[in-house]
């Protein structure tokens, strides 16, 4: 076929009416129950053979939905956000297969609050997934009629709003587990490379650190986790350069920052973990490849992205959705920590 296949082509191939094809690709619900399972499978097989995809514009006119979801992340280069995107896309694909309506996740990291508000009002997206936003006032700038799910964010953003929910990670408990692990190894002189970003996730990490480190000898240095490896190296030098009072263990607010500690430790001739124990947060794909492998708190980014898509789909369908429980985190102990 030298043109784009249409619903009429699918109907002819499957031996059904165009109305039946429309019902199959209607996105589910009561209408789809009027089509037998055998007919539905025949229509889907014909569509696959022809390479047919229902046009988004027509679907929007018919259903009031586009099947497009916007995932906004602070930094597309961040390994954690890649995990969130992977989980969101996998869940969207599964949801599309279940409902015969394609769902797509579009990711953006070049946004500010005004840009998100414009995207929400434009009608191009059925809803927004906003991951690790910096500003607790963000919710007030978004239109009330657009479903929004905040990921790894301040629970106040979704509180009391029927079309907004917040899916948290229990990052505070993860940070507390990291500090408790170090203290159980006998480390009472602790360093903390603390994010200077204002996002709720970093406030939660700080609270978890302070609670678990109470009574220990603590030295903290601020670092921009969005500044990459060089910012991490600079902060690590500030923490480790002076031999007097140097911490014997360092907790980092993410794994890229921990990589900076590895670099500076090598420059200073410090062995990990013999001279310095190091713990990160995120459990990025490269964490086991550090030498030695990095002890870190696993933040389940894939589960976070998938949970966000499920919540957004339910909100879009007009369902009553309770505020979800935080997703658990876990400490993964590897070779970078010792006595």
UniProtKB/TrEMBL annotation:
It comes from the Bacteria. InterPro entries: HTH_LacI, LacI/GalR-like_sensor, Lambda_DNA-bd_dom_sf, Peripla_BP_I. Keywords: DNA-binding, Transcription, Transcription regulation. Signal peptide: none annotated. Residues 5-63 form the HTH lacI-type domain. GO terms for molecular function: DNA-binding transcription factor activity; transcription cis-regulatory region binding. It holds the Pfam family LacI. The keyword Protease does not apply. The keyword NAD does not apply. PANTHER family: LACI-RELATED TRANSCRIPTIONAL REPRESSOR, TRANSCRIPTIONAL REGULATORY PROTEIN. This is LacI family transcriptional regulator/LacI family transcriptional regulator, repressor for deo operon, udp, cdd, tsx, nupC, and nupG. It comes from Streptacidiphilus jiangxiensis.
């Amino acid at each position: 076929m030298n043109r784009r296949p249409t619903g009429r082509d699918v109907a002819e191939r499957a031996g059904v009416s165009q109305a039946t094809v429309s019902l199959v690709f209607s996105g589910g619900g009561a209408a789809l129950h009027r089509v037998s399972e055998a007919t539905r499978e025949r229509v889907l097989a014909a569509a696959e053979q022809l390479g047919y995809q229902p046009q988004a514009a027509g679907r929007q006119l018919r259903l009031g939905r586009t099947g497009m979801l916007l995932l906004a992340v602070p930094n597309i280069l961040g390994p954690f956000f890649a995990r969130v995107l992977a989980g969101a896309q996998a869940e969207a694909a599964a949801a599309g297969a279940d409902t015969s309506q394609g769902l797509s996740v579009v990711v953006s990291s070049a946004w500010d609050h005004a840009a998100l508000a414009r995207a929400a009002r434009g009608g191009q997206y059925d809803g927004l997934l906003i991951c690790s936003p910096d500003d607790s006032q963000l919710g007030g700038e978004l239109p009330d009629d657009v479903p929004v799910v905040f990921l790894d964010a301040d629970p106040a953003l979704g509180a009391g709003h029927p079309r907004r929910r917040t899916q948290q990670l229990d990052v505070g408990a993860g940070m507390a587990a990291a500090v408790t692990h170090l203290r159980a190894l006998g480390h009472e002189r602790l360093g903390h490379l603390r994010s200077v970003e204002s996002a709720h996730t970093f406030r939660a990490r700080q609270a978890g650190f302070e609670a678990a480190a109470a009574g220990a000898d603590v030295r903290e240095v601020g670092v921009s986790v969005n500044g990459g490896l060089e910012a991490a190296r600079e902060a690590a030098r500030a923490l480790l350069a002076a031999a007097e009072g140097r911490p014997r263990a360092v907790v980092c607010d993410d794994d890229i920052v921990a990589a900076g500690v590895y670099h500076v430790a090598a420059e200073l001739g410090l062995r990990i973990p013999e001279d310095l124990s190091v713990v990160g947060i995120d459990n990025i794909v490269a964490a086991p490849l550090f030498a030695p492998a990095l002890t870190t708190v696993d933040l389940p980014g894939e589960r976070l992205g998938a949970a966000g898509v499920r919540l957004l789909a339910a909100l879009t369908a007009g369902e009553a959705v309770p505020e979800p429980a935080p997703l658990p985190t876990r400490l993964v102990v590897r070779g970078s920590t010792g006595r």
